[in-house]
Structures are given as C-alpha cells and as structure tokens.
Design a protein that fits this description.
This protein has about 650 residues and is an alpha+beta fold. It has 21 helices and 16 strands.
C-alpha cells in the first residue's frame, strides 16, 4: 500500500505513546494561556491622535483662526500619514485635533508632529504661547470608577479623602492614571481691610506683587569655604496660611507691616467651580429608601496601562479599597463602584467561552447521530485541542481576549471540526468494512482523504484571510477574526492528521478477540445503511425526472432571492457587530451660553429626580461644570474638555 504525506504523518502518531501526552500538554497550555491573556471588552486599536492647545491672549476668535489656525492646518496636513486636521478657534486660544491613518506608528507620528510644529514656530505671531501637544489613546478611557459620598460630608472634605485614596491607588501595578472629578481644593484666602490698608500706607497692587514675589525659591549660587562648596538658596515656598500671614508687605516708622495686620488670612475651601452628586435609583430598593435624594460626591476614576488585564486590575484595586476602609476611609463614608469595565469584560468573555463550549457540544451531538457515541467522542476530544492551541497563539501574538477574538472561534467552530470529522468518518467506514487489519485500514483511510482535506483547509484559509487586509479603522478592529480563524483552521489540520488518527484508532476500530487472527468479514454494504436510503429517496427522483430537477433549482434560487430581500426591506437588522448591552449611559445637558453654574445644577437635579424614579436605574451621578469620566465615545468627542462657565461670570 503506497502511503502519501498524510498517511506518513498519521503513522508516526497512531501508536505512539507520546500522542496522548501531547494532547494533555496542548490542553494545559491552552488553559493556562486563557488565564494569562488580558481580558478586554474591545480589541486594542492603535489610532495615532493628538490634541494641540495654543494660547493667544487677547485675540478674538477670528484673529486666532486667521493668524494661527489656518497656517498650522496647512503645514500639519503636509505631514506624511496625517488623515485629517480639525481646529476650534476660541477667544485667546486654539485647539487642533490631528489624526493619523490607522496603522501608523504612534511614537513616530508624534515625533513628526512635534518636529513640524517646532520648525514653524518662527511664523507664529508675537505673544503666542508654546504649543501643548497631548496624545490620545483608547487607554485614556477609565476602566474603573469609585464615587465617594456621605450624609455628613461636603465636597471639600470628600476631595481631601479622595486625594489620599488616589495616592494609594497609584501604587497598584498597571495603573496609568488616577483622576478625581468634583470637590473643592484647599486654598489660602486673603481678605483685605481697606481702612487698615490706608492706615498703614499699603495698596492692593503692591500686596499682590509681594505675595507673588514671596512665594519663590531660587538658587543664589555656590559658596566655597575651607575647600567645601555650599549651595545657597534664597526664599521659600508658602506651606501654610501662617507663612502668608507673616509676609512683610510694607514699612511704617521703621517697623515692618505684616500681612495679617491689614488682612484676614485663613485656609478655606476654594470657590465652587463644579458640582458632583450621587443618588440611588428605584432598582436599588434598599438604598433608594434609606438615602432619599442626592448627596455631594466626588468620583475617583482609574485608567489602565496599554495591554494590561482590565479584570485583574479591577480586582486588585477593589481589594486595595477594601483594605483602605479600615484606616483611611471613614466608616460612615460610602464608596460606590460606579464603573467597572473589567467586570463587564470578564462577563462577556465568559459568556462567549460558554457559547463556544455549547457549539462544540452541539457539533458533537450531530456527529454522534451519524457515527455513534465513539465517533462523537473523537471529535469532542479533538476540537478543544485545536482551540487550546489557538488561544496559545493569541497569547504569543499579543492579542487580548475580547468579543472579536472569541467571536472568531465561535464563527469557525463549524469549519474547524470538518477536518477531524473527515478523518474520523473515513476511518470509521474502513473499520466497518473489515477488509484490512485495523492499523493498515487506519493508514489507508487517512491516506485516502488526507490530500483533499489539506486542500480544503487551505481553500477555507484563502477565503477568510483577505478580511485581515481591510483598511481604515475597521482593519485592526476586525483583523483578529480572520487571523484567528486562519490559525484555527491550520491547527485543526495538524490535529486531524496527528491526534484524530490516534483517537480514532482507539475508539472506532472493531475489537478482536484474543487468540483469534484477523479474518475477512462480510463487506460493509453502503446501500443497506439508513442514511443512504433516505438520501436515495430524496435525490433519485430529481436524477430521473427533468422537471423535478429544475423545480428544485428554481426553488433554491427563490429562497436565495427571498433571503436577500430581507436585507433590502430591512426586515432583518444589518450590523457589523451585535448590539452591546451597556449597563450605563450618559445624558449630556447643554445649557444656553451664559447660564450660571447654579442654574445648570438645578436643571441637572430635575433630570436626576426623573431618572431615579425609573424602575431599571440602580444609581446615578450628576456632573455639573465638568465632564463625567469619559467613555470611548466621550474620548472621540472630547467631552473631557467641557468646563465650568462659572469662572467667566462669578466676578461680575
């Protein structure tokens, strides 16, 4: 019997003791890779993008546009790889949004952007500030958020506790940034007394300049004495209100006049420039009844480093916060988890893994109907090995576990099992025929269908792989699916030619009695099988009668056209990805220009009261004069740049 490539490969594994060990090793490697691969909701998309901020004090929006925006748009657009440039001209300042094409190297793109800006600084008008270039990435979106609130705490007290909490969270590995939204900072207030100022002969402008000059520390040089160099510093920064109060602001009759003699100096919360509040919704029955209404709050949001596991990071920070409740966070202060993308990512990944298992079981059941439980067992053991090796490949290539990479496995399940089914079914057929001894029958069966199986695998790979070359943002977003599918197909071929023959030889061959040599048995008659009889009754009339053939073809065409019309009539929704059931949403309120912070707060409170009464709302947060912790949509729309207008109107 002449053996081909597939037969020679299968022969090496058919009776080898190492085959079962390789199978166990592959399963363990795949399972361990699942624990090591970071879990995320969405795949990492590298889109080089940056915001450029430039100040032009005193200029009108029109002057900013003509003197800064137009020239910068022109020379930045000439940078190789730039897709578009957007500019927003405001009074005294300019913001430029620069986005490079997807696939451009992030670091090289930023270097080119910096170089081009510095090269053209000589054409900028006098008085323009140095440009601030701020890169943006998908990892800027916080994955975890804690909202601190309490019945007996105001936003100033909450901010102090939040700052201490943020410092502790920063110590957790893989934390990129911790930001605090809401609250008021501590400041030193100087309340001047006009009568005392006049009595001591000091004025407002002079005091202001002296305060600025007093809050400075400089290097005065080096004093060399006795072969020792001593660094000398002059001045000192203010550390407390007492330092400010003891500042000398004038002289009278040869005596120094201190600031506390002409003013009241005290440490106090700063003026409110933003408001944040928290409240329970109707879905949380206990919290809704116990804590009616809303309370002042702050939100501590955490962004992760690129490539880190959102689920593991969220778990570590939760443990950290739980530990800090013993000594740093007061017992009567509430810490509510208002965002956890790590938990949602883990839930989605677990759900997809469960669906993957269900699909394997369903395919196995169908195989059992044709080849019995032994044939189903062969396929059931072969497919997990393929997926285990595919997950290991994901880990090696730096992919994360997300709904795209796992969707590739679910999508390819029906195709992956084909190779193992073809090999197992042909072995099953030859074992039933009993024309050859089991070992020779197995090799003959594999050699018979091996080359067509290899060809079919490469054909499917050739059909799926071109999707990896899609351009634009959808390219890197969807590329894990065709690449993962192609890898899974190639690995399924390897498993079909190595492990499947071994498993088929164990479970599918007919057991012979001890001491009885191999004998020829009655050949397996295909025409006597039930499957053949059903298929014959269906296909024979169409082969014999012409009009039945054409009726079947015409009916198939009608069904095809009818299914295509479902998309045209929109009876079936067409989407690239299924709807994502998010557990949070944002309501953005844009008030008319000139609206005060307090008026906006009143409107937001009314909206919050309505939202809290909805039966599906668990809790809500309000952010007035500032933006909520941004989502990916907010990152693209620059919601984090929304600021309070209070500073513009509070002094009038």
């Amino acid at each position: 019997m002449e053996k081909g490539l597939s037969g020679n490969i299968a022969k090496a594994f058919l009776q080898s003791k190492l085959t079962i060990l390789l199978m166990i090793a592959f399963l363990l490697i795949g399972g361990y890779s699942t624990l090591l691969i970071p879990r995320e909701e969405e795949p990492q998309i590298q889109v080089p993008m940056a915001d450029i901020f430039i100040g032009y004090p005193g200029a009108s929006p029109k002057e900013v546009e003509t003197k800064i925006a137009a020239p910068m748009e022109k020379f930045i657009s000439n940078i190789k790889g730039v897709e578009y440039v957007y500019s927003t001209s405001m009074k005294g300042q300019l913001m430029l949004i620069v986005q490079f094409y997807v696939g451009e190297d992030v670091e090289k793109s930023l270097v080119k952007l910096y170089s081009e800006i510095m090269k053209h600084m000589d054409i900028m008008p006098q008085g323009v500030t140095m440009p601030l270039v701020k890169p943006r990435a998908i990892d800027d979106v916080p994955v975890l958020g804690f909202t601190l609130w309490g019945e007996h705490y105001d936003d100033y007290q909450l901010k102090l506790i939040g700052q201490a909490l943020a410092n502790e969270i920063k110590k957790v590995p893989n934390v990129a940034e911790v930001s605090i939204t809401g609250g008021r900072n501590k400041e030193v207030k100087v309340i001047l007394d006009k009568s005392l100022m006049a009595l001591n002969g000091v004025d407002l402008i002079g005091i202001s300049k002296l305060i600025q000059a007093g809050n400075v520390q400089n290097d005065a040089g080096i004093l060399v004495r006795n072969d020792t160099a001593i660094s000398i510093q002059t001045g000192n920064f203010f550390n407390a209100a007492d330092d400010v109060a003891k500042l000398v602001v004038g002289m009278k009759n040869g005596q120094p006049i201190y600031l506390h003699q002409v003013a009241k100096v005290e440490e106090a919360p700063s003026e409110a420039a933003q408001y944040v509040f928290f409240g329970y919704g109707k879905a949380d029955t206990a919290g809704f009844k116990k804590y009616a209404g809303s309370y002042p709050a702050i939100t501590v949001s955490v962004a992760k480093k690129s490539g880190s596991d959102a689920m593991k990071l969220a778990t570590e920070i939760q443990e950290k916060v739980k530990h800090l409740k013993k000594d740093l966070i007061p017992t009567d202060l509430q810490v509510s988890e208002t965002r956890n993308y790590g938990d949602s990512a883990s839930h989605k990944v677990s759900e997809l893994l469960f669906h993957l298992f269900i699909s394997i079981v369903v395919v196995t059941l169908f195989v059992m109907l044709a080849m019995g439980w032994r044939g189903g067992l062969v396929v059931f053991l072969s497919v997990p090995v393929t997926f285990a090796l595919t997950l290991f490949s994901y880990y090696v290539m730096g992919y994360t576990l997300n709904r795209i990479t796992l969707f590739a496995l679910v999508f390819i399940t029906g195709i992956v099992v084909d190779d193992s089914i073809i090999i197992a079914e042909n072995m099953h057929r030859h074992f039933k025929m009993r024309k050859l001894p089991p070992l020779q029958a197995a090799i003959y069966a594999i050699n018979e269908v091996g080359n067509p199986t290899i060809l079919a695998t490469f054909t499917v790979v050739a059909a799926v792989l071109p999707m990896a070359f899609v351009s634009g943002m959808m390219g890197p977003y969807m590329s894990p699916m065709p690449i993962g599918a192609a890898i899974a197909m190639m690995l399924s071929l390897v498993v079909a030619l190595t492990l499947t023959p071994y498993l088929g030889y164990i479970f599918l061959r007919e057991k012979e009695k001890k001491g009885v040599a191999h004998q020829e048995h009655k050949a397996h008659v295909l025409e006597e099988t039930g499957v053949y009889k059903i298929y014959y009754r269906f296909i024979h009339p169409m082969l014999e009668t012409r009009w039945k053939r054409w009726a079947f073809i015409f009916g198939t065409v009608l069904v095809l056209i009818g299914s295509m019309l479902l998309f045209y009539t929109k009876s079936v929704a067409v989407k690239m990805l299924p709807f994502d059931n998010k557990n949070e949403f944002q309501v953005v309120i844009d008030m008319p220009e000139g609206t005060t912070l307090e008026k906006t707060m009143a409107v937001a409170a009314e909206v919050a009261a309505y939202v809290s009464a909805q039966p599906m709302v668990k809790d809500y947060q309000g952010y007035i004069g500032t933006s909520a912790p941004i989502s990916f949509n907010g990152l693209v729309r620059h919601y984090d740049l929304r600021m309070a207008r209070r500073e513009r109107y509070s002094k009038s």
